[in-house]
Structures are given as structure tokens and as C-alpha cells.
Design goal:
mainly beta, 278 residues, 15-stranded mixed beta sheet
């Protein structure tokens, strides 16, 4: 890797100016999870590492439910920010991994609370702690859990936690039964059967801009857009992958975060009515 050293204040200032210039090349809506004040050089190093292309999950999995946030946040009311993932699955008999967003500040506050208390308790106790990373938060019906929205690119399903009825404006009719999360479905053509032995591939992503969320899937040489499915999102969002009792082979890679949107994209008519899940 690159190692920089400074032997004088002038050199240090020059290095910091270079780092500041490099930071301007990152999408303006992307930031570190921590709110600590850092100099431009340290922030550049940490942000470059957090947004680098990498494999998030790979291997044969047996009945795993999980929410896996990436290491950076998106300012939802800022300029356009597009995030792309590659997904490969085989022998997946209970759905596929999903991609989406999570209310960063609510999630981090819950994680901090869980370090000292049981979720739902006001005082420390000896009961087993509940780890939110061991559940698919997009299917959570508990209002104390953060907003989460997950997109399943293979069949076009969209799951939203019950908190989404409070913390954002879902587009379309959304009247779930009490104590239930929500499910909608985009008018996507289904991809290859993910339960087959032969691996099935999907390219998908989402765009956040001016407090709105759009979903994208690459199919037959071009990107297809859902249009806006949600408005008035929380200010800080965590990109995530979600798994719900997943069983089979999966490989999920974070590809890029960019201020440039997919070109030649086709807009879909919309989404089916939101229904209660389960």
C-alpha cells in the first residue's frame, strides 16, 4: 500500500491538500459511519477502504438469518448515490440474499443499547442479549427495531420492516395488519431458478437521492428501474445485505458506489400493493 510521511509542517499541509482533493472524487453522499472529526488524510484512507470492491459472503450456508451492514453510510438527502452488488446462488431452496438499506442512527443506537441492556429492558440484566445482526431486519414487525428495506433481485420482492410506516413514505397502498412487516413485488421477469445445481447470477443495485429510494436490476443487457418506491427516508442510511433462513450456496459481492447512475435504464410500471408479511 501507499505510505506517506511528513518531515515538516509544509509537507504535511501539502499531503493534506492532496488528500482533500482525492476526497472530492468520492460521491458526496457517502461518508464514514463514525461521526468523529478526522483529518482529510485519515478520512481518505478509511473511506477508500470502506468503499473498495470486495466479497461480503461466500460459501455453503445452512439456515442463516442475518443483516450485514457495509462499512459506510449514505446521506439520503444528498446528491444521487448508486450502489451495485453481484449475487450468485445455487441450490437455494428458501429464497436468495437481498440488498437494501437500514436506518443507520437507529441501528447504531440499538446496538449501543444492546451492549449494556437487553432490547426492551430499561436496566441491565443477566438475560441473553438479542443480536440484531442475527435476524433479517427487513422482516421485523417490532417497532423498536430500525427501518429496513430489502430488495430480492431474483423475483422482484421488496420487504420492509414495520418501522417503515413511521420513518418514511412508502409509495402505493400500504396497510398491513397490526404487528406485521410489509411485502411488495416489482414487475420483474424472474431470473433463473436459484434452486438448481448450476449457479445463477444477478446484478442489482439501488439509488438514493433527495430522500428517495429506487431499485435497479440488470437484465438482458440493460438496467431496469423500479422508479421511486419510498420517500422521506431517514438522514443516514447503511447499505446492507439481508438473509432469511437462507440455505444453499451464495456469493455476494459489493461492486461499487458511484455518483453516476446506470445508463440506458428502463422504468417499470410500478409495484404491486404492499401486503402484510407473513
Amino acid at each position: 500500500g501507499l505510505v506517506l510521511g511528513a518531515c515538516s509542517l509544509e509537507v504535511r499541509r501539502a499531503v493534506l491538500r492532496c488528500a482533500e482533493a482525492q476526497l472530492q472524487l468520492h460521491p458526496k453522499s457517502v461518508d464514514l459511519v463514525s461521526k468523529m472529526t478526522l483529518n482529510s488524510l485519515l478520512k481518505l484512507v478509511l473511506l477508500s477502504e470502506a468503499t473498495a470492491r470486495r466479497c461480503l459472503l461466500r460459501g455453503y450456508i445452512k439456515a442463516l438469518s442475518s443483516t450485514k451492514p457495509l462499512g459506510f453510510i449514505i446521506h439520503s438527502h444528498g446528491p444521487a448515490c448508486f450502489i451495485e452488488f453481484h449475487i450468485k446462488v445455487a441450490r437455494a431452496f428458501n429464497g436468495t440474499p437481498a440488498i437494501g438499506i437500514l436506518d443507520a442512527d437507529h441501528y447504531l443506537a440499538c446496538q449501543k443499547k444492546a451492549a449494556y441492556h437487553c432490547l426492551g429492558c430499561d436496566s441491565a440484566c443477566s438475560s441473553p442479549k438479542i443480536n440484531m445482526d442475527d435476524m433479517d431486519l427487513s422482516r421485523s414487525w417490532q417497532m423498536e427495531n430500525p427501518l429496513a428495506i430489502a430488495f430480492h433481485p431474483y423475483d422482484g420482492r421488496v420487504l420492509a420492516s414495520s418501522r417503515s410506516l413511521v420513518d418514511c413514505e412508502l409509495q402505493g397502498d400500504a396497510r398491513p395488519s397490526r404487528g406485521r412487516s410489509l411485502q411488495g413485488r416489482l414487475d420483474f421477469t424472474a431470473l433463473d431458478d436459484e434452486s438448481k445445481r448450476q449457479p445463477s447470477h444477478a446484478r442489482a443495485g439501488f439509488m438514493v437521492q433527495d430522500g428517495c429510494l429506487q431499485l435497479f436490476r440488470h437484465h438482458q443487457g440493460h438496467w431496469v428501474s423500479s422508479g421511486v418506491i419510498c420517500r422521506s427516508l431517514p438522514l443516514r442510511l447503511l447499505p446492507c445485505i439481508f438473509l432469511f433462513h437462507f440455505q444453499g450456496f451464495a456469493e455476494v459481492s459489493f461492486v461499487r458506489v458511484s455518483a453516476e447512475l446506470p445508463f440506458e435504464n428502463e422504468k417499470l410500471p410500478g409495484m404491486s400493493r404492499w401486503r402484510s408479511w407473513p
